[in-house]
Structure formats: C-alpha cells, structure tokens
Design a protein that fits this description.
This protein has ten helices and 22 strands. The longest helix has 15 residues, at 120-134. Helix 4 (120-134) runs parallel beside helix 5. It has three domains: 3-213, PmbA/TldD fold, CATH 3.30.2290.10; 219-237 and 358-452, no CATH class; 238-355, no CATH class. It has helices at residues 3-16, 74-87, 113-116, 120-134, 201-215, 234-248, 251-255, 316-321, 362-367, 418-421, and strands at residues 21-37, 40-58, 61-67, 139-157, 162-180, 183-193, 219-220, 224-232, 276-279, 300-305, 308-309, 330-331, 347-348, 353-355, 371-378, 389-401, 404-410, 412-417, 427-428, 433-435, 438-440, 443-452. A hairpin with a 4-residue loop joins strand 4 and strand 5.
Length: 453
C-alpha cells in the first residue's frame, strides 16, 4: 500500500471500531547524511522512514498513537489508539477535527527532484567543498553535518479531509577552528534550503575561515556599554526574534493566557519598520506545503504590519475555540529533524516567519550607529518569550563606533528585553537569508546593553 491507501484504511478501520472521529497522518522520509570529523567524512548514510500517527476520538476522549508499521498491522494500531482513547480524560476544549477545504497548487510545488535524488557520493563532495574552502594555515573543520531529505505526507480524517504534500530540505552545520600561540578562534555556519543546487558551499567555507581567523584577533570585552544598538546577523536575529514572535503570536499561547500579546490585536507592538508574516507557502520556506499536517490549506498570514499586531496563527484546535478559521498552522514537521515527526500529534506552530526587508545595506545600517555592536555568533541565542528578557553570550562580534566596525570582541553578554527593544528605532537591512524556518535580514535592535565578563 502507498501512504494514501494506508491513511484511508486507518480511518476506515477506526470508524468501524467505533470512533466518532479519526485522523491518520502517514509520511515517508528519505534522508542522505554525511558527517565530517576533523576535515574528513567519517559517516555517510541513507535512511528511509515510513511512519503513521493516528487519532482515535470518542466524543471528547482522544487517543493518539504512532507506528513505523514495521512489526504490526493497521488493525493493531487502531486497537491501541482505541484503548488509549477509552482511558483518556475528556478534553473539554476539543470541538472537532477540521472540515475539508480544497488546496490550491500541485502536491510537489515545494519539491526539488535533484535534492531528493542526490546520492551519498555527491553529497559528500558538497560537504568537502566547505572543508576545502575553509582550510588554511592553522584552520581546520572539526565537525560538520550535511543532510538532504525528501518528505511526503498524507493526512485523512473522517470528515472528508484527504490531502498531502511533498517537499525537500537541505540542512548543514559546520564549525571551524583556528589556533596560534594559544589564541583560539572559531567559526560557525549553518545552511538551509529546499534546493541543494542553490547552496553556495564554497562560500560557506570561506565564511568559516574568515570567522575563525578573525577570532584570533578577538579580545575579551571588559567594559559595560548601556543603550547600545546591536546589529544581529540573520542567523542570530532569526533565532531570537523567531522564538519571541512564534510564542506571542501563537493562538495556543493566546488561548491559554500565556502570550503577552493576548489582548493586543490592532495595537502597536513594534516599531513601524517591522512587518512580519507567517507564510506557509513561502518560496524559500522549508516547511512550505500546500496543506498543513492536518490537511488544512496553507496561507500567508500577516502577523505584524508596520508595527501593528494584525493576527495570530491558528491550528484547527485553537481556531475552533475562538470560532475562527485555521490559518494552516497545524504542524508535526519541523525544519531541523525530519525523522520521527509522525510520532507526535499536530500542534499550533509557525511555518515560515518572513520579515520584510528594508532598503539599506548592512554597511549603511552600521554607518548610522554611533555606538553599538555587530554580532555574528552567540554561544546560543535565547530569549524568554513570556517576559522578553535575554542575556546571551557573545562569541563573535565587532564593536561599532561612529559608524565604523572596530575591535573584535568575545566573552561578553548581550542583555536586554526584546519586547521593549522592538518598539524602539529598529533598522531592518536588505538581503534576507534563510535560517531555520525564518527568512530574515540583519536587524539593528536598540536599547540594549553589552556587559564584559
């Protein structure tokens, strides 16, 4: 049976077993991977995963189970889901699975055949392009990962939803290290794409080498600067802003009262330079599909327009609680781990966060800053999405003084509150990049601090 037949059979068996509603999600994922260890490809592998997740609903009792289908029958999966439902407490907020809506576009709109069909040898060659371009005297690539995946899924429910989509994802993570006379520099680069031919692997290696060598010049920051403008590279800004917006604009967090934006529709929550959408059909988005993982058609939802909060994003469960329509944000899939996603039920999650670019180059943005810092890499960019507070360790950055990049620094903390910062004089640069499930340019965040350690 193909995945559509499996989904259909699971729903039929569930209804026959007494389910008032049922939903089957079936996916097949093919992944090729190469791992670099000290400049050398050490592990190369290919894997195919077939899996299903089944919701068996009796009234307001919901049983969910999953299987790889390797050692059990479809009937056994249904029986297990049924037994889980009957011992589960009722969910008073559950109203219904989604009704069917016809999606527009071809099922393979976001699928690239070259990426899906790449072999281990060619993938290894791509990874080694990074290594070769990064290599220099005293510069090595201690580790790296490059994966190419194709994902096909089908979702069917007892109300008539019967839809699916195909897509591809490329993910790469590489580090570089330099060392001279006890001084150490590091470089970190990630790449995401739906098309392997669109990735500049040599450029990634060159950037790694540059970061590692510049790190040799870095000095520990021992001062304390207040009221600093921090320009974040797209990788770091995307992580911290994406975490904040992905929480505050989620209908799940709004419904349970956790979102600081729960009562702010139509109000200003950011500077008028900031416009953000959740675009389930982004041309560059890694989670783009014609339907979400509940079978609801995806769309482009404007969340913030010129600083004003216009909408939240919804899955069916949270939309029905507000008598709203799902925005196509019921997701199991994510952009980092393609395997095992069938084993969790769909939740209210962002697709691709797109930040509308400004017209100024990064150099022009830096040129307007009297005192600040340009940050290329944190130890790990995090923010508390409920309070907006952050304190992130800077690993690779340059001070900005009178519009010029000056001293290379490390071992400092970038501190502030992101909810407050984005209300200030944000500057959005041109040239957005894909980082994780965000398409974002460099952004200058005002009213922050850098504190030496």
């Amino acid at each position: 049976m193909d995945i559509a037949d499996i989904a259909d059979k699971l729903v039929q068996l569930s209804e026959k077993a007494g389910a008032t509603q049922a939903e089957a999600f079936v996916t097949i994922v093919r992944t090729s991977s190469v791992y670099i260890d000290d400049d050398i490809p050490k592990i190369v592998s290919s894997q195919t995963e077939l899996g299903t997740g089944l919701k068996f609903i009796v009234g307001k009792q919901i049983g969910f189970t999953s299987s790889t289908l390797a050692s059990e029958t479809l009937q056994e999966i249904v029986d297990r889901a049924k037994s889980i439902a009957h011992v589960s407490s009722e969910d008073p907020k559950f109203l219904s699975l989604p009704d069917p809506k016809k999606p527009s576009g071809s099922i393979d709109k976001f699928y690239d055949s070259n990426t899906a069909e790449i072999g281990n040898e060619e993938l290894t060659d791509k990874a080694m392009e990074v290594v070769k371009s990064a290599k220099a005297d005293n510069v090595t690539v201690p580790n790296g990962t490059l994966r190419a995946s194709s994902i096909e899924f089908r979702v069917q429910n007892s109300l008539g939803v019967n839809a699916g989509s195909k897509s591809t994802i490329v993910f790469g993570f590489f580090t570089a290290k330099s060392e001279i006379s006890g001084q150490v520099g590091e470089g970190v680069q990630r790449c995401w794409s739906r098309n392997i031919d669109a990735v500049d692997f040599s450029g990634i290696g060159e950037k790694l080498r540059s970061q590692a060598l510049e790190g040799l010049e870095a000095e520990a920051f021992k001062d304390k600067w207040d009221d600093v403008v921090a320009v974040l590279a797209p990788s770091e800004g995307g992580e911290i802003l994406g975490t904040l917006v992905g929480f505050a604009a989620s209908a799940e967090q709004v419904n349970n009262g956790s979102s600081p934006w729960a009562d702010n529709l139509g109000e200003r929550v950011a500077h008028d330079a900031l416009t953000i959408s959740d675009n389930g059909r982004s041309e560059r988005g890694l989670l783009s599909a014609i339907v979400d993982d509940e079978g609801t058609p995806t769309q482009n939802t404007t969340l913030i327009e010129n600083g004003v909060l216009r909408s939240y994003f919804f899955d069916s469960y949270n939309a029905l609680q507000r008598d709203m329509t799902s925005t196509g944000n019921g997701l199991r899939r994510n952009d980092r781990e393609t395997n095992g996603r069938f084993a969790i039920p769909a939740g209210c999650r962002g697709t691709t966060m797109e930040v509308i670019s400004g017209s100024k180059s990064l150099d022009d943005v830096i040129g307007e800053i009297d005192r600040g810092v340009y940050i290329e890499h944190f130890a790990w960019p995090i923010v508390d999405p409920m309070s907006g507070a952050f304190s992130n360790e800077i690993r690779n950055a340059r001070l900005i003084e009178k519009g010029e990049l000056t001293k290379q620094i490390k071992y400092a903390l970038w501190v502030g509150n992101l909810y407050e910062s984005i209300k200030g004089e944000l500057m959005i640069a041109a040239k957005p990049e894909v980082h994780s499930n965000r398409v974002i340019p460099a952004i200058a965040f005002p009213s922050t601090e850098i504190i030496g350690q």
